[in-house]
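Batch job 17 of 40 flagged for manual review because the log was empty.
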Amino acid sequence: MKDGRGKSYFVDFMWLAGDSRIVFEIMDYGSHGTDRTKYRLDLNRELFLQSQDCRVYSIALDELKENPSFILSMLRHILTPYLAAMNGSTGTVERQYDRMERELMRIAIRHNRLIRPKEAARQLEIHNMTVIKYCRRLVEKGKFRAVTRGESQRVMYYEYIGTMQSPDLI
């Protein structure tokens, strides 16, 4: 990958799961030492990769050598939603939810499983009724629950009732 300055960035491992890019970086303490410039450049590189829609995971080389079972366990937790969503024959990610539905589920998770359409519309820079339309779809699909108030039964917000590591979120 090249950044805006034309500088190349190489990664240790990259896994492509549908349109998701997952990067694993093996970091050793010795390469940084007391050199703050090298440390800063590594952080900038990681930030650039994240700006390119890569999920970046840094793994300590010492931990990989001394405790590989822990690293393997963590990798399983990270990759399980992607593996569960992948079609075995083609290697592509099968999606039951479109991009907007997935984004609304993520917003709800970030806000303690609750999503208020007006706030989500402001955050996504779309019309309030568009958010409501997608929230209603998610209610029909069993991912959201409409929370009403008063005699009017007016929907005040929606609650995400799925799991935090659902393959539907990728």
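Reviewer: the log was empty due to a logging misconfiguration, but the result itself is present. Residues 21 and 52 are 9 Å apart (CA to CA). Unflagging and moving on to job 18.
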